[in-house]
Amino acid sequence: MDWEARTRAALCAARGVAHLHAAHGLAHGDIKSSNLLLRPDPDAAALSDYCLHQLFPPAPARPGSGAGAGGGGYRAPELVDARRPTLASDVYALGVLLLELLTGRSPAHHAASGSLDGSGSGALDLPRWVQSVVREEWTAEVFDAELVRAGSGAAEEEMVALLQVAMACVSTAPDARPGAQDVVRMVEEVIGGGRTTTEESDGTRGASEEERSRGPTP
After folding, report:
1. Could you tell me which of 132, 109, 131, 108 has the C-alpha nearest to residue 119?
2. CATH number at residue 141
3. Domain of 30, in residue numbers
4. CB distance 49 to 30 below 8 Å
5. Mutual orientation of helices 87-103 and 3-19 as an angle, nearest 10°?
6. How far is CA 146 from CA 69, 101, 173, in A?
7. Which residues lie in Basic and acidic residues bias regions (predicted)?
8. Which of 14, 34, 53, 179 is deepest in the core (most CB within 10 A)?
9. In the predicted model, what is the mean pLDDT of the chain?
10. Total tally of structural domains belonging to the chain
């Protein structure tokens, strides 16, 4: 995926989460890359498997497995005790998804290997790894090498700006995370607003006209 495809996917994911939160007051509960479905229309990516946590009890967290417990690296820190997901924990998972798009690294791979470099040493999840790299002022090392090779100066600025949005989403304090609609607005600003409309900002973009005519999801 080139940079434009990744930003469109990020924007569609954010709009889907914002729509669930604003229109229905529901937490998705399982935001991850495998639940972001890409379509031929680049503006019509969609989130799947939403709100299944309403049907099934949460899986217990594994002792010592940290923020990635039971969620493949997407579980917010406050959910290590297997409590029900919240709107804030959705935003955390969305932030991890944005970090995946930026870094090319999979939280699920980290959860299986025990470290991001595959060495099996340490227990640093994807958000904390990114924080550690940025803290050492090696921000350029965070980004997927494929993006860096193909990117222009403008794209690099957008990558840094989207990284800031992602890091706000994965704040360890739930109250410090932006709302999903704020994330949509920030991502739109990152990509220049040229791909947006008022309707899209409400989180409804990505569904077809036929889907929108059906009314709210039960």
Report:
1. 109
2. 1.10.510.10
3. 3-50+65-213
4. yes
5. 170
6. 29, 11, 32
7. 207-218
8. 14
9. 78
10. 1
